[in-house]
Amino acid sequence: MNSSYPCPIIGCPHYPRGHGPKLHSLSNLIRHLRGEDHLKSRHLLDHTICNEINLFRCTHSACTSNMDIFFQSQQQLNDHNNIYHSTTTPPPNDQHMNSFDEYSNIIFHRPGSEHLTNNWNSGVEFILNNYDSPRPHFRSSWRRFLRGKNKTIFYRTMSLIITAILKSTTTNEAEPFWWLLLHYEMLILAPYPSNSENNSENKQRLIIRQRLIDFQCGNIEKLLNDTEFNTNWNPSSPRPSYRTGNTAAQIAADEDNYRTAMTRACTFNKIATISDENQQSVEQLYPSHRDALQTTLPPTNTNTLHLPGNICDTIRKANRNKGTGVFSDSIDAFIHLVKQDIPSTNDNIQELFNLIYQGNIPQAARHFFTDTYLFCLHKDETDNTKLRPIGIPTAIRRIIASHIAKHWKDKFALHLLPYNFAVGVPNGMDFIIKTMQLSIDRFIAQPQQLNKLPTRSAVFIDLTNMFNSVSRHELFDIIANDFPELYNFTSLLYDVDGKVHYKWNQTDWKQLYMEDGVNQGCPLSPIFATLVLHRILQPLDTALKERASARLQTGDLGDDGFGSITHLLAYMDDISSTVAHEDIEFFCTEIERLGVRRGCLVNPHKTRILTSCSGDSIIHLLPPPTANILQRTINKYSVKINSDKSTTPVELTTGFRCLGTPIGSKEFAQQFYTEQLDVVRKGILSMSETILDTQTRLKLFSTCIIQKLPHLLDSEIMHHYPTDDSSHYAQWYNWAGHLTSEMDSITTSFFQDLLDLPPTEPLPHTSKLICHLNVNKGGLGILQPSLRAAPDYVLNMMICKRRSTRGFNINNDIRPVMLHQSITDLYDHTQNKSSKCLQIYNGLLPHIGPLCCPPDVRADEQIPMFESRISLKSARDRLKTFTGTIVSQQIYTDTYNTDKHLLLLLPSILTPQTSYPLIGMCRSNPHHRLPNWMTKLALQRKLRLPVFNDHPPICKCGALHDKYGDHSFKCKRISKKQGHNIIRDCWADALQPALATAGYIQPSTKLYIERRHINTRDISAQPFDLCFDPDPSTSHTNNTHCPYMTIGADITIGNSRSKIPSRLNRSTDVITSISALTDAHLQTFERKKFNQEDKNKNDSTMDTILGDEVIGDLLNNNMILLPLALDPHGRWGPIMHNLLFNTATPPKYKFKPNVPNASIMAFKATTTPCPLGILQTADSVWKQNQIRPFYGHSYTSPTPSIHTIQQLGLGITKGLMTILRHAANISRPTHTTAVPGSTCRQQQYNSST
């Protein structure tokens, strides 16, 4: 019997490797585990220790948050399972030949099946006889055409297949149903060739419907045979080498998967054809078995473990429209199934993946988790043998692997630290980059600046084809000893050789076997490979520290006071370190020795050694023994292949690209920036050629292309920020380095091309600033590098410095992983006084750090708080607000100095509701996608650019249109009805959910549009464009109680104020002053709606209906009129703003004494109990009763307020742009006039219109 019981939570002081005492009994240990010490760390349980001390626990997903999951005996655990997780076992089947009937009937028997023929006996027999069926000759399916009833039946059937799997598993007869699940999309959604007559939408719908019926009946052979004719590419119609427009990229963008869209847009024409020319290169990517180190015994007690966490949450958050597996199976099918939120279905999905996690898969079906689809990209289009392999496992494997990677990330991080910073380590990459730069600076660059010799060289190890080469025997040994709960799942993936399927000459399927290594494309593969690499780094680190310790014992303090200690800094398979010259040969040979038998082979053609930062070699200056060691190491481990296959040693003397960032000298960094800028320019060109939708191009530029450079901005500060003049630090927001300036130039060029601006008309400076202004402030939110660079550097350095002193805090319940003091010294300016990196950080810190702190923090506490407690997110949020204010002020200042008449338009132009539709809304909702002409026109209005060319048309009124289109909203001859009605309808749909959430109406209640038969003396009147009747029964609080019978809105589109006051106070509050003038102008249109015009009853009498009396009738009927004014740029008036946000001071209106009802109505419309601040109320209610992650079903619209503003803005954009285009269409041209918003691209791309 045990006398002491260690805590099995990794990192706990009572853990076997912890410093705390062990517990004296199992009951004490269980009380410890149930206590508050491990509220957030029970997922770090060490299964091996649990087995050693006979500690039993429930791992069922339903018990994730239960504290009482630990038991002292198996019997206690069994009793717990019988009470809380009991399952009914079906009686054994006596007739084996008909046993499949019970499970296939689950799919067949449903309403309407009485008229169908059940062919499932032959269907199951066909599956079992053709289990390894041919792979489909298509990659994309008809999934996007799955709509209406077909969609309902498709996902209902998929749910039934899962049910059949679960039930048949209990009798070990699940083989055919696993086959059906993996082939389901292939059978139902196989496409016809693009030139087929069956590609019309109606025929697609009928074909899918018939396939669903065939599937229900079990006509599997017929369905499978049908897929053989449905090829995307075949010998007579191969994959094209080039085409304009990329449908796959556009589809991905339309699913909000912008990263995939950008990859497809830029790599479509780089996909290699595998043939005799390069087959050998492909085969070499998959090496044969190596000799096993030892036989790994499987751990015990793992078959009963359950998959932790909620797999459905992982599926919901998965990216859509990713590549399909070898069976044309997609993650999207599971995403749509889960999002139906049917509890029984989601419970079954959890259990399905639990079977996979436990490895409880029929032997015949296990290949579904080992097979991979392979295609290759050209590394060099001039050499077809240089290929980059891309592997795609089945969707179901990617889902569970992603889930496991997420739920085990803390445990992986604790295992890999402090050598590998790639898994579960926030800002791990930044830490490596900054630490390497500080180390190179201290041990190489600084000595050279003092005319001394460097004491170290920087080594950057590259491993050859590591994913495909790592030893599986080593992996199994690691899993069995350190992650035994993953052993069954790992065995499912790698206990047999996997088949890699690829298209031969883009026609036939071929395959090769993957005998070793881990599958590319599987989310767990990088982690598994890193675990094997850890078996190399750990002993290497120990050996290097022993060598430093030996020097220290002889009195040699080295260059760091610790004997020149070497630290390994790895990110996945990228290993970086600064190594003392006397250790460098040992470092490389030892990593080679340890790696060979584990499949981690040093690649001398890409491994590099940096000896100098001056541009000149220092080897000849070193003492001969040291020089020989260094030269010998370079000759062996850092070489390039010449054209004649000979090799030449490569000694780096300026810098190196470490994890995508230049480190070393500033000259090397400058050259690197130039290269990366060229890459971005080529990406823009490629996107412009393949993506024809204007709004998609804008979104991809903002979210993908320009985002390839921000990680270099803090690098530019690190290398190039001046330290000779302290005044530069206070003006950090005016930084204009080479990279920053070129990024601005790229943005300008992009918009000029997007909007077809001639080179002679550069983008105005004010327009550039609006591009950079935050979306929630009315801009486009495009990255502004000058305001991003210095804050990024300070924030990243702050986090790295904090990690160096306080360690890496992986979990709040356990102690951080601490680093060696010599690393801490690198970040300490008292120990590293000559470091330019630290000088820049300390110079910028007083000017940026306080901006990241809450406003109530005392000045003398701001810097300590910033460096010790402020989170990255809160710091970035406060800096974003600050920089947004700077840009707003710059816009107003620039406008005042260049065009004062534009000043009054800025509050209208800079409204967020017209920014969201352009760039801030998801595209997965088709209603959010704007046609090209509308996107271009809206951008021109947002950026205050001409919408007409040099020859504006003549209006119906005889006046010439101005080039900006403002006349279209001033002229009374131009009808605004069509645009008005678009806005009206969109606003009715947008306000309904917010009103329901706030408690004014029922969720099912729709707003009335142009409601008739309202009881006023003007029987023909329809005073409300839209209205609703408040429902008292839905009131959540007293704030939403509304006693009025009807709340109605009358939408009016006005014009813009054209006259600027003769005297304008340029105070710091000038923005508020100008905004007040704009609102006052909008109030004139609201006042007109309150003060309605009189009208004659009919043409034959002079009787008049007084407008004020009609208002009085509405008051008598207990109805409220809300005039909702809108100006030509989309700013709404004070009453609309009051309705949405409940301003502190309600708007005031003055009327003549002869219209008393107008005055009363205005008062009631702007004060309670009229609905006010409905978005604030809706946000509050939603926060208390949140039923889904995002209110608008997308991360872009997380709350009711943001969602509603977006939808209102969408209606505004569609309505106003329609008015503007209609005005141009009915006008007479002068010479050659382009319709606003039209471009040559619009003629090419019509699908979005």
What does this structure look like?
The protein has 1249 residues and is α+β, with helices and mostly antiparallel strands. It is 46% helix and 8% strand. The chain has 48 helices and 21 strands. The strands form seven sheets. The protein has a five-stranded mixed β-sheet, sandwiched between helices. The protein has a four-stranded mixed β-sheet with strand order 4-3-6-7. The protein has a four-stranded mixed β-sheet with strand order 16-17-18-21, with helices on both faces. A hairpin with a 2-residue loop joins strand 3 (372-380) and strand 4 (383-393). Helix 25 (666-690) packs antiparallel against helix 27 (710-720) and helix 25 packs parallel to helix 29 (738-754). It starts with 25 loop residues before the first helix and ends in a 5-residue tail after the last helix. 46% of the residues are buried.
Strand order of the largest sheet: 8-9-5-10-13
Task: Give average pLDDT, whole number.
Answer: 88
Strand content: 5-15%
Shape: globular
Termini gap? 77 Å
- What summary fits the major beta sheet? 5 strands, mixed
Number of strands: 21
Continuous helix count: 48
Share in helix? 40-55%
Low-confidence stretches: 89-97, 233-244, 1239-1249
Radius of gyration: 34 Å
Derived structural class: alpha+beta
